[in-house]
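Weekly modeling sync, notes
Attendees: S.R. (lead), two postdocs, one rotation student

Agenda item 3: backlog of single-chain predictions. S.R. asked that every request posted to the team notebook include the full sequence so nobody has to chase files. The rotation student volunteered to paste the first one in as an example of the format we agreed on. Action items at the bottom.

Example entry:
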Amino acid sequence: MAVEQSAAESLLDRRAAWLQSYRFGLRVDEQGTVVSVGDGIAWIDGLPSAGMDDVLNFEDGSRGLVVVLAKNLIGAILLQATDALTAGTSVYVTVRRLTIPTGDALLGRIIDPLGNPLDGLDRPDCRMSRPLDSLSPAIATRDIVKKPLYSGNKVVDTLIPIGKGQRQLIVGDNGLGKSSLAIDTVINQREKDVICMYVLIGQKRTTVVNTIDALRQYGALDHTVVVVAEATALPGLTFLAPFAGCAVAEAWMAQGKDTLIVYDDLTTHAQAYRELSLLLRRPPGREAYPGDIFYLHARLLERSTCLGPADGGGSMTALPLVETKEGEIASYIPTNLISITDGQIYLDRRLFAAGILPAIDVTKSVSRVGGKSQHRRIKEKAGRMKFDYLQFLELEAFTRFGSRLEASMETKISRGRVLRELLKQDRLSPLSIECDLGWLIAYDLGLFDRVPKGALTGVMVGLAAKVVASGLALDDDEERWRQSVTAWCEELVPHEQTA
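Predicted structure, as returned to the notebook:
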């Protein structure tokens, strides 16, 4: 017995000594070598067990992601690159998926697509992480879009409503206010329990700084995470930026929270992917874009949805931005995204040049599912208003040919011009939905008909202030709304002005 006990103790001692000497770390089974490197990609020889989307560690401290498996070489996009990265550098496979930290610690922070801080603060203390690329929620877990998401813009909230879980494209030429509309929507989510993600893809540093300053100035940064891949960033980071933002928002959606994500913009993202694909020797297709660009954007946007109550009831609303050239909405990337999304907001250069801001073309804009989430009163009032506005646009076209119109037609044109002034709105000044109901009721009652054009802006500002101060809600008695709005307009528009 003593001999057996001694042998057992000796075995335990050897095991304890082995455990103490063991060091946890990456076990290197194989090693590759960089054949060539440049323009944000690297070609690697060796690593026969490497698979798609594996993360690579380079000997100099650089990192890469496998995207091409050729017969003799591996193509990788660079995520981090040092000046020491050259041909001959050793490469190892980590055999793990690319992830990004998630959690409430990211709120108010500016990060890159890998989760590294860009605001000069410490790394966010996030205990959870999520893969950048994952499958979209199954059909059985999804619910219909039934809760509104208010942008604060009069045209959008009344005529092109957006619901939580919807994918609404913002399309137009460069410089027409696409980003301003998206920023206004993010600002309008203050105190509405909606967590926002703003993804800046390949933007200039001045644009990045201006966007962050606007969000901070209007108190929107506290409920927002900004993911930045600047124009000077590696093409691989520009390519991964929207997936990183989506993964962070997806984590909150899985917790049952409502989220909003802005992709600014997917035109730059498509160009970065085209650049990488051509460098990686993939065959080009239409407009030199790779054949899977449609699949790439569809895979990204399909992750935005509204989950059913059994799966937490969270939602992710997507506002992708896409640029057109000279208003050509039928070009490749815009048509791809129009077919993927649930509607589009189209900004027109002619309206912008005429001073009609925001330059939203109502005739080309549509929301296919947002109407189901719109409040019944807004839907009723806005329906009549939209009919009047479209009729006015048609009649106004006839007046350009010098046609003589009947008195009733002249009245409709006059009311249409008033309505066009009412729909104008300055940037960074979102309006509550209660204020929208207030001016819709006033327009429906004809209280703006005799107001001089120059006084309309002042009356609208005063009416909005009265609505906010009154505390009236959308579901309050309709007669009370009518009486209140009538009294306020009588007060705001002196009789000598309406004469």
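Discussion: group reviewed the output briefly. The domain at 32-93 is CATH 2.40.30.20 (Elongation Factor Tu (Ef-tu); domain 3).
Action items: rotation student to repeat for the remaining queue; S.R. to check formatting next week.
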